[in-house]
Design brief:
The complex is a heterodimer of chains A (about 475) and B (about 1100). Chain A is built from 16 helices and no strands. With about 1100 residues, chain B is an alpha/beta fold. Classes of the chains: A mainly alpha (about 475), B alpha/beta (about 1100).
């Protein structure tokens, strides 16, 4: 175990204060401390708040399944859908959760390729969040169809009815491919990254079951050079593979709308705008989850204010892109000279659903602007509250897109109003239960910060740093 | 006459002739008798499928024995030992019959699938109506299979056997034969049945003391009665709308709720269709409507004057006086009643508060069309208005041209009031109530429930065990017209058969059976009665031939009731003068409608009639043609009235008090309604109906009869409204009223049209697409090649189906909606589901109001739909209707987004749905610009509509569902929950026609179906003949010709979905001199405000100019620079 203070025997000139970067791990925490701190969460006693949260989340999750059971047994009519609003909360929730699922892979893959070292403290939890969010998202397209028992017809499977293939021109089919690919790669990536840490836990584990399962899933990791070398290559490859997926998934989800001819949906701006929105909402959710965890598990040294600030900056940037997109949509609706299109956008802002639109604008465009101020983005309470606004705003964005476009389209005789039913609401709330149960299980049984990766960005791991190199590199 | 026993041509509908002809061989009869014991003919008590089959078997026996001789033997029970001629199992057959309707009947061809009627169509051979029907007729089929219909013979509410009940009828005969019928009273409804009239005469002969009373809650007899008075002979006026160039309606909804509207629509549409006169001017008829409620007639009118119903009399007087004034008749001789008449007219006209110019100019127009115009008065108006209409028609020389007269065949009846007197006096020993439902619909002041109890013995024949049955000693179930023999007369007096297609399901009786038994006649079978009646009309000689002819053709024009030769000279001006001065004196007491004394107008509902369709789900769910309301009636009120009464909100529950009686109903602010008039639809709020109509507190709507007394059967003044501060949910299928200046329905005035005949193609975005490159035809070039061109193998070059709908003649009657529902097994979904826009109609009629843009100007188009009822522009609106159904786009947006390929295009241009393949993503519906796809959110076909949300726990009454399923068309799949459905262009009919043609063609290879062979259900029902369907590859087909009309346009054509359904623009024919004249239809004015006038060259037309400038090549290739 290294001592917490730096040795003084070797004198190396420290870089000037003004160009020195703030360290990613504060208080010069040693590598051992990092292992202890993170593995300790798993090894220690289950905190009371965990039980409390779990006991709240479990029934909520069960409620979700109950609602789905009711839906399947009775019909999609238990939701508030109608003609013309044939897609409602289910699709809103699907896009919402998929959007949240964007941050994880972006953080782990894109930031990895861009050599953003600060990603290491948040990537594990963000990836877990991604996977759970995609699971929550995946429920909706499946259950929203009228005959769920035939949902597998969306897959291009050979069947007994002759060569009936799916319609490859349909964006819904692209969704099937995009989301399933994204889920598979994200899950693989996440699991790959877990292997060295699983081995660490295995090695520290005392109980039989722990040894068995962590041993099983760490796939015989020994930490040998060859293992590390293979691991790093694979990690890089998977990061490369995931990066286009980050862009493709939400682009394709946006095609569900953009490819159609509904005024308000049929816009070419959708793919980039959706991706920006997804990253925006994903970071919002990461902040919402990590800020409490950071203090509950005393991880302030690993998840520093700098991390939070950086995430706030990404949120600000993507939030502003989203705001720009909103403005551009209106500009094009006017400039395009198509009265149907123009009406759809006026109707969004000033029609019967004006309230949804302005909630969206306030949460998505106005609230991230507070992050221009360092004082606010370093205040965790303010950041946490604003991150929740981002989540709300992004849900409403999808609601605005899906519902307000459909409710008044081309032929005024079709116009109608849509309100969700209790089943709609409870199913959506229920998915938070599912998400929370999965996330709670994750933080209880898996290292929520990537131990090995965080170690790689400590001063001790930096050969050019006074603390790093050969002298402090043991653990 | 040719021998009808030979098989008809293999194609076309097979009309049925007498069945015993087919089965009446002695061996067969003998075998039948052996095979089936007597029990097979007994009436079942339940209504399960098994029972149904039993009945079917039973009817086979009946048929074999020549008892009813009405149906094909049912194969399920009994295989044929000898196959009947011309019968193929599974191939539907058509039988000529008629649906009796008050004192008329609708001539029909009814379709039978293996012995069960599944669809009714108008009889196209008959000049009257030419095959058009109304929604009531279309929906009448469902009544046949109504599980709530009366199924048992009841004595004091307890079930008895049929024989016992029939014994009671015989006893009546015994009881009253002696005393010549003293104490016996009949309460009947109007009927045109010669058999009933014959039996009535028989009873009158035997029992001269018996009293005959007739009551119709909504009676169309006023015109007959009033005209008979002024023409001094019994006449039944028949208007000829097709011959009238100018029509003026005095509160007469002849396109909607008047009797025989379907035939009037046909005539009106014939006159409305654009024609060219000798000077190459486009002509069309012109319609002036004066009315209080906004009716279909008013909504189709070129000029509409909204006045309260009570004021119509004054307006009619003003009009008549104006006619006299403008005619400049020579000085009246001494003793002429004319000066007296004119002075009363002037006196009456003083009360009119309408624009003088309206009266003057409309009369000028009428006068310019002497002998070619027509003034009609509505059934709600008093006799004097009808007489004034007759007077105007007489003055204008229309008698014998646009109005002719038939002999009135209906015998004279006493009134309901007289029956009440007799009951109160205790003079009624026995009361026979034939059909009708007086306990529900008699005037409220008669308190019919108590009155009927005063009769010592009440025998009631009723189709339902309803309010009247509850206070009857005997209740006899009545047979449906599709299960009983009878006869009737159509509106033009033709003799029609009522021919059954099935034996009575619950062993019910018909009116004529009951009367025959009371008459003590030996002949009690309706079949024999109807034959005897015909025999008495044609004589023994050649009777069988005539009878066969009648059954085969569905009418006998030789036996048409005789025309009455009433001429202008027959008009009795003194009677008119007397009647009028009397009426004016009576009227003067009623006062005019005002805020404190509102007028109530009781109107025949477009869905439920007078309540007889109350338990019919198709009608309950068929949106009202004007309000688009379903499953309810409401207190219709004008915006201004609602505002003046203290800003009453739409859908607010109020209590209407009229002459001390009260009823509660929701307010519905209705555009175009006369101020201070309340419209109350009859037929709702039944205390005892069925599962659909509900009972008592659960009933659909409120009972307007509760405040209707004998003095104001149609309307009356003096009502008050009390607000109850509660909101009542109304299910309306169209929440948004305005077209918002969009070119969805395109219309022009006739002079605009002459200026630019293809104006409709110069509207919407496609007209503003000048910068888009074009192809060699001058049409916008395609980015993607049309799939048919890209892959010719996917394309049939024999048939390409298409439809054209003429908005010029469509009046919006909604017969097509119900016809489609019947043909395509479309379920009803109930009020709650309709409230959430989940109605399943494949075809709907969109109705838009357009207002004066100057008034519309300040109204935002972004408001909530609930708010639109308070804007001023809705006071005087123009109305357009548009039937909307799957457009069968060639580049269908629904197809490319379906992930499982469930909706695809076929090689004949149909956009088809593979229900089996559909998983229900509903993406197709989202991407459909017309929103014509319908999704089965629940198992509508399997679960009761009030238990849809209970899922698998919902009760499932097998027997009930089974009976309703009998109404289903076996050629159309019944859809389950979770699948999308939509109009198929009646693909089953197309396939049937193709198969028939292929069979006929054999090796010749000529498999092209001739134009007119395939008719879609909506087209067939359309009384206006506004829908054309056929093969687009045949340049001679009607649809191809219509598509070449300059008025032809595609809705949202700019989306380039290339719809196969196109519309022909509506051309209004307003009178330039009228005060409410606008240079363009209001919707076009609104459009012009946003998008520029379609009558000026712009957009696409700039393009044409480019060609002339010699930039053709450049334009073609680099259109983008233009």
């Amino acid at each position: 175990m290294s001592s917490p203070t730096a040795p003084t025997s070797v004198k190396i000139a420290a870089p000037p204060r003004e160009i020195e970067r703030e360290p990613l791990v504060l208080n010069n925490r040693s590598l051992g401390w990092i292992s202890d701190q993170i593995a300790g969460i798993i090894e220690g006693k289950t905190p009371t708040w965990w039980w409390v949260t779990m006991l709240i989340s479990l029934p909520v999750m069960l409620m979700c399944f109950t609602m789905i059971g009711y839906l399947i047994s009775t019909g999609v009519g238990v939701w508030g859908l109608n003609s013309p609003i044939a897609w409602g909360w289910a699709i809103v929730n699907f896009v919402f959760w998929i959007g949240i699922g964007h941050a994880g892979t972006l953080i782990s893959a894109v930031l990895f390729l861009l050599r953003q070292k600060w990603r290491t403290s948040i990537n594990r939890a963000a990836e877990a969040m991604t996977i759970f969010a995609v699971m929550c998202a995946g429920i909706f397209p499946m259950i929203h169809v009228g005959r769920i028992w035939f949902a597998w017809w969306l897959f291009p499977l050979p069947n007994a009815n002759g060569p009936i293939w799916p319609q490859f021109r349909s964006p819904l089919l692209w969704d099937v491919f995009a989301v399933s690919t994204y889920f598979t790669v994200s899950a693989l990536f996440w699991y790959m990254g877990l292997i060295p840490d699983l081995a660490t836990i295995r090695d520290r584990c005392k109980g039989f079951f722990g040894k068995f399962f962590y041993g099983l899933f760490s796939l015989g990791w020994t930490g040998s050079n060859r293992h590390w070398s293979n691991y790093e290559k694979a990690y890089l490859l998977l990061a490369g593979l995931s990066t286009p997926l980050v862009l493709s998934v939400h682009s394709i989800v946006s095609f569900d709308f953009a490819v159609s001819q509904v005024p308000g949906w049929h816009t070419t701006i959708f793919p980039p705008y959706f991706v920006a929105g997804a990253i925006f909402s994903g970071f919002g959710m990461v902040l919402t989850l990590m800020i409490p965890l950071r203090s509950l598990f005393k991880l302030e040294d690993l998840l520093t204010i700098r991390h939070i600030e950086l995430m706030c900056k990404v949120t600000l940037a993507t939030g502003s892109i989203v705001g720009y997109a909103y403005g551009m949509e209106f500009f094009i609706a006017w400039y395009g000279g198509n009265p149907y299109e123009a009406y759809a956008f006026q109707n969004r802002a000033f029609g019967p659903y004006w309230w949804a639109y302005w909630i969206m604008i306030s949460c998505n465009v106005i609230s991230p602007q507070f992050f221009w101020f360092k004082k606010l983005r370093t205040n965790v309470v303010v950041v946490w509250i604003l991150s929740i606004f981002v989540n709300i705003g992004m849900w409403f964005e999808r609601f605005v897109i899906v519902v307000t476009s459909l409710h008044r389209d081309y032929i005024p005789a079709n116009w109608a109003y849509y309100s969700p039913t209790k089943v709609d609401v409870l199913t959506f709330v229920g998915t938070f239960g599912l998400f929370m149960v999965l996330f709670l299980l994750f933080i209880r049984f898996l290292p929520l910060i990537a131990i090995s990766e965080v170690k790689g960005v400590t001063n001790q791991a930096d050969p050019h740093h006074p603390l790093g190199g050969a002298k402090g590199g043991h653990h | 006459m040719k021998d009808l026993s030979h098989s008809p041509k293999p194609s076309g509908p097979a009309y049925w002739r007498s069945l015993d002809e087919l089965t009446d061989s002695p061996e067969f009869r003998q075998w039948m008798d052996r095979e089936f014991p007597e029990g097979a003919t007994e009436a079942p008590t339940g209504q399960s499928r098994r029972d149904f089959m039993k009945i079917m078997g039973a009817s086979f026996l009946l048929a074999g024995a020549g008892l009813t001789g009405c149906r094909r033997p049912e194969e399920t029970i009994l295989p044929f030992s000898k196959m009947p001629q011309n019968y193929t199992h599974g191939v539907p057959q058509f039988f000529a019959t008629a649906m009796p309707s008050r004192d008329s009947a609708v001539p029909l061809l009814a379709k039978s699938n293996d012995g069960r009627p599944t669809k009714v169509e108008g009889n196209p051979d008959l000049e009257f109506g030419k095959g058009g029907t109304d929604s009531f007729t279309q929906a009448s089929l469902l009544n046949l299979y109504d599980p709530d219909r009366s199924q048992k013979y009841l004595k004091g509410g307890n079930a008895v056997t049929r024989n016992e009940a029939i014994g009671a009828l015989r006893m009546l005969n015994g009881q009253f034969k002696e005393n010549k019928g003293k104490g016996l009273s009949f309460l009947v409804q109007s009927s045109s049945s010669p058999s009933r009239h014959r039996l009535e005469a028989l009873i009158r002969e035997q029992m001269p003391e018996a009293k005959w009373h007739a009551y119709e809650p909504v009676s169309f007899r006023t015109s007959v009665q009033s005209c008979s008075k002024v023409f001094k002979k019994s006449v039944r006026p028949v208007p000829h709308f097709s011959k009238a160039k100018v029509i003026l309606s005095l509160d007469c909804d002849f396109l909607g709720t008047e009797q025989e509207a379907y035939s009037h629509i046909r005539g009106y549409a014939d006159g409305r269709r654009l024609k060219e006169d000798e000077n190459h001017h486009t002509t069309s008829n012109r319609l002036y409507a004066i009315e209080s409620l906004l009716t279909l007639t008013g909504s189709n009118a070129d000029h509409r004057l909204r006045v309260t119903s009570g004021q119509v009399f004054s307006v009619a007087a003003a009009l008549t006086e104006q006619v006299f004034d403008q005619l400049h008749l020579p000085e009246d001789e001494a003793g002429s009643p004319i000066p007296a008449l004119r002075s009363s007219l002037r006196e009456k006209a003083k009360g009119v508060t309408v624009d003088e110019k309206w009266i003057v100019e409309s009369v000028k127009d009428l006068l310019a069309h002497k002998g070619e115009c027509l003034v009609v008065a509505g059934h709600r108006q008093p006799e004097s208005v009808h007489q004034l209409a007759a007077a105007i028609n007489t003055l204008l020389g229309n008698i014998g041209h646009t109005v002719t007269f038939l002999e009135d065949t209906q015998p004279a009846y006493d009134s309901l009031a007289q029956l009440k007197q007799a009951c109160d006096a205790g003079e009624v020993e026995a009361l026979v109530v034939l059909d009708g439902n007086p306990v529900y619909d008699a005037p409220a002041d008669f308190d019919w429930k108590a009155t009927q109890r005063k009769a010592k013995n009440v025998v009631r024949l009723g189709y339902y065990e309803d309010e009247t049955s509850e206070v009857a000693d005997w209740h006899l179930p009545m047979a449906h017209y599709l299960e009983s023999w009878g006869d009737a007369r159509s509106g033009d007096g033709s003799y029609l058969p009522v021919q059954p297609l099935i034996a009575p399901l619950f062993d019910g009786l018909t009116e004529i059976e009951v009367l025959a038994r009371i008459a003590g006649s030996d002949q009690v079978k309706p079949y024999d009665i109807a034959r005897t009646t015909l025999k008495s009309a044609v004589g023994e000689n050649g009777f069988e031939g005539q009878w066969k002819q009648l059954l085969h053709d569905g009418y006998l024009s030789d036996l048409r009731s005789s025309a009455v030769d009433a001429a202008e000279d027959d008009f009795d001006w003194s009677t008119l003068t007397q009647n009028l001065s009397q009426a004016i004196t009576d009227e003067s007491q009623s006062g005019t409608a005002s805020k404190d004394a509102l007028e109530v107008v009781f109107y025949r509902d477009a869905s439920l009639d007078d309540g007889r369709m109350n338990n019919n789900g198709w009608m309950q769910e068929c949106p009202d043609p004007i309000t688009k309301m379903t499953w309810d009636n409401a207190v219709l009120i004008s915006r201004r009235t609602a505002a003046e009464m203290g800003n009453i909100k739409n859908k607010e529950l109020v209590e209407v008090e009229f002459n001390g009686r009260k009823v509660q109903g929701p307010i519905w602010i209705q555009p175009g309604l006369a101020d201070f008039s309340l419209g109350l639809a009859l037929g709702y709020g039944r205390s005892k109906s069925g599962n659909v109509g509900g009972n008592g507190d659960d009933s659909v709507g409120f009972n307007a009869y509760a405040i209707r007394d004998s003095k104001s059967l149609s309307f009356g003044t003096g009502a008050k409204i009390r607000r109850l501060n509660r909101i009542y949910d109304i299910s309306c299928t169209q929440d948004h009223w305005s077209m918002e200046g969009r070119a969805i329905v395109r219309e022009a005035n006739i002079e605009n049209f002459e200026e630019k005949r293809d104006f409709a193609q110069n509207m919407d975005l496609e007209a503003h697409a000048g910068h888009i490159p074009t192809d060699e035809d001058g049409k916008p070039a395609q980015i993607y090649e049309h799939p048919y061109k890209a892959r010719p193998s996917t394309h049939s070059d024999i048939h390409q189906w298409g439809m054209a709908i003429d908005l010029q003649t469509c009046v919006g009657c909604s017969a097509c909606v119900v016809a489609c529902q019947s043909e395509n097994n479309i379920p009803i979904v109930g009020k709650e589901q309709v409230a959430n826009s989940r109605e399943m109609h494949w075809m709907r009629i969109d109705r838009y109001y357009s207002g004066n843009p100057e008034l519309r100007g300040n109204v935002s188009n972004l408001i909530m739909d609930d708010e639109q009822a308070y804007a001023e522009w809705i006071d005087d609106v123009q109305v357009v209707n548009q039937p909307m159904l799957c457009q069968h786009c060639e580049s269908a947006p629904c197809e490319s987004v379906c992930p499982v390929n469930a909706t695809v295009h076929d090689h004949e241009g149909l956009n088809v749905m593979a229900y089996n393949r559909c998983v229900g993503t509903r993406y197709c519906s989202n991407n459909c610009a017309y929103k014509v796809r319908r999704f089965n959110y629940f198992d509508y076909n399997k679960r009761p509509i009030d238990q849809l949300y209970e899922g698998p726990l919902a009760s499932h009454s097998d027997s009930e569902i089974d009976l309703i399923e009998m109404a289903k068309n076996p050629d159309v799949t019944v859809r389950m929950r979770g699948v999308m459905e939509k109009c198929t262009f009646c693909t089953q009919r197309i396939e049937q026609a193709k198969i028939a043609k292929k069979v006929e063609a054999r090796d010749s290879g000529d498999v092209e179906v001739a134009d007119g062979t395939v008719k879609t259900a909506c087209q067939q029902a359309c009384p206006a003949d506004a829908i054309a369907f056929g093969n687009l590859l045949d340049p001679e087909s009607k649809v191809s010709k219509l598509k070449n009309d300059p008025r032809n346009y595609a809705v949202l054509g700019f989306l380039d979905t290339k719809p196969r359904t196109t519309y022909l623009a509506k051309i209004r024919n307003p009178n330039k001199n009228m005060p409410d004249y606008h240079t363009m239809p209001l919707s076009t004015l609104e459009y012009t405000k946003n998008m520029g006038s379609p009558f000026e060259a712009h957009g696409a037309s700039h393009y044409a100019e480019g060609h002339e400038d010699g930039h053709a090549v450049e334009t073609k290739t680099e259109g983008g620079q233009h």
